[in-house]
Structures are given as structure tokens and as C-alpha cells.
Amino acid sequence: VRVSARAVYSKYSIEPASPINFGAVLKGTKKTRTIVLENKGVLNFNFCIQQAPKDASALKSRSSKKGESAPSAAKHSMERKSSSVTQGPLNLGMFTVSPCSGSIGPWGQQKITVECLAGQEGTCKEQLCIDITSR
Length: 135
Hints:
Elements: E1 12-15, E2 30-39, E3 45-51, H1 56-64, E4 84-85, E5 90-92, E6 95-98, E7 101-104, E8 109-117, E9 128-132
Antiparallel strand pairs: 1-2, 2-8, 3-7, 3-9, 4-7, 5-6, 6-8
């Protein structure tokens, strides 16, 4: 009996890389930006977007030690499979993020919409955490 296996981990890219700047937005109007989360590996993975913990710098350094692939600006030319979405929008201050979770197949991608509805005058900054299983 011959037995074989190949150990792999999830590979992905996030475009654009942080930060996402909406610039000046007229009070009472909306502006939208899109983030593309792409699976560059051979396994399905699930993702979940949530508000980053207060000490996000500690989270960033911890996750980079686990072998995450770095965000890449390169586009992949292979056909991408669609992903399934499992959760509604996340509201953070004047920002709305959708979808907030889902599953992406090998070489698939998910477009994530970040909408800014300018309410009060002033600057609004939020930090998001994109958690990818089995990274």
C-alpha cells in the first residue's frame, strides 16, 4: 500500500494593501472602495472580517510569524471561481463592510465593499482584521 500526502497552507493576497483612504467626502454623501481577497493556494479557505482589537500592532506581528503570504499587487490571469457569502454587513462608525465572511475556493476571489457614509464633520478612522483560516 502506497501512502502519500503533501502539507500546504493557505496562500492569499489582499488588494489594495492597507491603508484605504477615502479622502475628503462631502457630508451626507457616500463613497465606495473595493478590496479584493484572492485565494492563491490549492485549498478552500474561510475568511472573517471584524473590527481589529485595540492592540492591532501586536496582532499584525503575531500573524506575520505564522507564515502569512504578503499582500501582492500582481494580478493572476487564471479563471477565478466565485466564493460563497455567509454573513451580512459590518457597521463601524461611518463605514460599512460587506460581505464580512465567506469561503473562497482555489484560485478564487471575493470582492469586499467598504462604503463610507459621511455623517458628522471630522476624521473617522477604523481598523479591520481579516482572519483567514488555516493560514
